[in-house]
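Hi support team,

I submitted a single chain yesterday and got back a structure, but I'm not sure I'm reading the token output correctly. Could someone confirm the output below corresponds to the sequence I sent? I've pasted both exactly as they appear in my results page.

Thanks,
R.
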Amino acid sequence: MVWSFRNWRRRRVQQHNALPEPAWRDVVASLLLLEGLSGDELKRLRELVTVFLHEKELVAARGYVLSGEMRLKIAAQACLPILNLGLDYYAGWVSSSSIRTNSCRNTNSWMKTGWCIRCGNR
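Hi R., thanks for writing in. Yes, this is the structure output for that exact sequence:
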């Protein structure tokens, strides 16, 4: 395996910014789409979410504030499709804007909670 600064930095982020266990358990329990994942897949997802939250910006529009739980839920759902691909798959994706609304058009994701998510590229 070839050494890379990016991989070294990501391992350091995982070691020093681990998600709190109770918060991670709550997120896993609240997202039905994670039910079928094995223990190993959940571990890898947690590591991916940790780095995702460190590298990507999550922004709430219209004066709303994203709670820590909402940030974890958004990150977990964003990382699930790339669980076996890696975070480099989102290399050009810098931020995600979230808007609390009853309707959502032209977005990459719609959450049952009424949050509308848009992904921004560089």
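A quick pointer for reading it: The helical segments are 5-16, 21-30, 39-55, 68-79. Let us know if anything else looks off.

Best,
Support desk
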